[in-house]
Amino acid sequence: MAVEFVGIDPDTDRDHCPTVWADAEAQEILFQGWLPTPGTRTECEESSPANGSVPESEAIVRIPARMISMIREACDAVERAQLR
Fold first, then answer.
1. What is the CB-side half-sphere exposure of residue 31 using CA atoms within 13 A?
2. Is 8 exposed, middle or buried (0-12, 13-18, 19+ CB in 10 A)?
3. What's the number of CA atoms in the CB half-sphere (13 Å) around residue 58?
4. Contact 81/25 with Cβ under 8 angstroms?
5. pLDDT in tens, 33-66
6. Which of 1, 15, 21, 25 is most buried per CB count within 10 Å?
7. Which residues pair with 62 in a beta bridge?
């Protein structure tokens, strides 16, 4: 896996750092973020079209809106890899 660091939340304390990576080879974007509260998790599950629970093999993470440009950059890196 060729993971490329894209960016870290600029307003972080460096101990709890939402981060974005791109894996162009696997065509995936990876996020590190804050875990939601149980109430937020329930709200997400109830609002999903399937109205089901999030599987144990998956997670919901919070990423601050100030990281949108980093997320776009990661999307672009994966998209460029698809064009090769």
1. 17
2. middle
3. 7
4. yes
5. 988 899 998 898 889 887 678 888 888 999 999 9
6. 21
7. 34
